[in-house]
Amino acid sequence: MGYSIFQNTMVDMTYPQIEEEIKKGACALLPISVVEEHGPHLCTGTDIYLTQAVCVKIKQQLNAMGKPVIIAPPFYWGINSITDSFVGSFTISAETMEALLLDILANLKKWGIHKIFMLNFHGDYVHIRKIAEIAKKAYIERKTEAYFINSKSTFMQFGITEEAPYLLNVPLNQNLLSSMGGDSIDIHAGAAETSWMMLDYEELADPDIAKQLKATNLSMDDLRIWLHGGNSAKEITPSGYCGNPANIDLDAIQRIEKETSEAFASYIYKVL
């Protein structure tokens, strides 16, 4: 088997193996993203593949610190409010997403997993804010130690500024990530995501097509229209990417992945 989002998760374990890890006091990582178009050069599973890849790196880091970790089955039925007019971009209602994730968290808690960390690498405003709301509801109303962990800059970008125990704001220097697209706003299937997929799942990325794609060079006015989603987003980026996918830099993205996974692991370790 060359690749699978289920590799290194509970899906590949027997139930006695899962029970044994829980007896050791394992926490759970819950990868959350979507299935969404990512241009003509990346697969629609890009976001969930990358979220899963980072979870595996975090698990390795925490294991090295002596902490047992289980990765829950990746959740990829999220919200696509921007690219939903493209074929391949699945989206579900906020109510459905909340109901599903709360049920998943309840199962993990029922089995004796006391701390659950939700990770997401899908940059949709509605999607991200809904995860924060779910973490709040689980933590406060259902007494489940569920945490939403993300970079502090991402939380601020999406208007999540409150200080709360269920929100883990990780300070990350994202200058390198921001600079990968050069002068182009690089936020969807651009240099960063193309490089990241080439690093971890090269079978699912087509560098030959990527290198032929021109940078979108959106203005801030274009970006505001794009963020409204629907047909407007498709008109602004008809090829389904926003950024500079030709600017592949494996060294830069490997450094970013390492710094991100180490920072997240360190933050989770403090909570355990």
Descriptive overview:
α2 (46-64) crosses α11 (250-271) and α7 packs across α11 (250-271). The chain has helices at 15-23, 46-64, 94-110, 125-141, 152-157, 175-179, 191-200, 207-210, 220-227, 230-236, 250-271; strands spanning 27-32, 69-71, 116-120, 146-151, 167-170. β1, α2 (46-64) and β2 form a beta-alpha-beta unit. The protein has 272 residues and is α/β, with parallel strands linked by helices. It contains eleven helices and five strands. The chain has one domain: Creatininase (Rossmann fold). It is 46% helix and 9% strand. Strands 2-1-3-4-5 form a five-stranded parallel β-sheet, sandwiched between helices.
Furnish the topology, listing elements before pairings.
Layout: H1 15-23, E1 27-32, H2 46-64, E2 69-71, H3 94-110, E3 116-120, H4 125-141, E4 146-151, H5 152-157, E5 167-170, H6 175-179, H7 191-200, H8 207-210, H9 220-227, H10 230-236, H11 250-271
Parallel strand pairs: 1-2, 1-3, 3-4, 4-5
Helix pairs in contact: 2-7, 2-11, 3-4, 7-11, 9-10
Q: What would the CATH topology be?
A: Rossmann fold
- The CATH class is identified as Alpha Beta
Number of domains: 1
Mean pLDDT: 95
Structural class: alpha/beta
Low-confidence spans: none
- Rough outline: globular
Write down the Rg. 18 Å
| Beta-strand residue fraction | 5-15%
What's this, in brief?
By secondary structure, the protein is an alpha/beta fold. 46% of the residues lie in helices and 9% in strands. It has eleven helices and five strands.
